[in-house]
Amino acid sequence: YAKQVLALAQHMNNLKMISIAYSLIGEYEYITGNYSIALQWLFKSLQLAENINDSSRIANSNNLLGNCYKEYGDYPKGIEHFLECKRIAELSHDTKQNDLFANLNLGEVYALRGVADTALIYAQQAYSLALKYHSRFTGATLMTLGYVHYRLNNKNLSLEYFKEGAAQYKNNFGNSRYLSKGTLAMAAVYNQ
Known about the structure:
By secondary structure, the protein is mainly alpha-helical.
């Protein structure tokens, strides 16, 4: 479908939609583990977003690049792109979506790096933004808080966040990749 979006956007010469299509293809590629191909598409999306000076698209492209690097295990590069997403989102007052995602991802990546105190700050900011905007991603922020508290060795609190986050996420999205990741993280808490 992303390739169909790209073909239609190119036919219409809609540069913003072309950038979105590049992002969709890049996101698919990193989810399936094709990181080098994903980066090519995501950098094309970023370059086009910069060419049309679309701050929301620039922030989103940086967020997706950060996700790709995070999934690949290159956490410093991921952090670099998440911080750029956050900076642009704050400058353009795009706190409802891109700033929320940047904080959410920064919380996760710092937890993965073992810097749980910093992870907690970002995860709490993401949760606050999710509550403020009644975001459908509130469950994701709760699951990230669960993972952060797991890294802080607060196992009981971690499980409570995971359970509430999983319930909200399942209610909003059904079975999904993020729900699967959160459930695996919750299993690690039980295993320990």
